[in-house]
Amino acid sequence: MERQIVMQNQMRERQMAMQVAWSREFLKYYGTFFTLATVGLTVGAIKRRKPFLLAPIIPLGFIMAYQVDSAYGTLIYRVRGEAESIMTSDHDRLDLPHGTPTFESIEKARRARSSLASFLEK
Fold first, then answer.
1. CA geometry: angle at 63 spanning 60 and 64, to 5°?
2. How far does the chain reach from its first CA to its final CA, in angstroms?
3. Cα separations (Å) of 31 from 25, 35, 57, 66, 108?
């Protein structure tokens, strides 16, 4: 049992590391796009004297801020804190439909599938 817990924790850590690495890699591409779009829109707005061309920079900036926070900031700590808060104060939201699976319910489903499979083979 202890080995299984250790293995599951290592898998969780690896998944989290992959998620952070993916965020950092995505940030490189999005950062390049954001920089080119910002420079292009700014130059276009100045040349054409149309300041409304700068409007797309605002939502793109919010996305950029989120990506930076996700890759290098404290987003993951805030999400973890919110998850811990939900687990302590709103635990009823985490209940599974029909309750927690029991050995009997799992065996019943397994038997039903095996009998269905044997019926379909005939």
1. 85
2. 40
3. 10, 6, 13, 12, 53
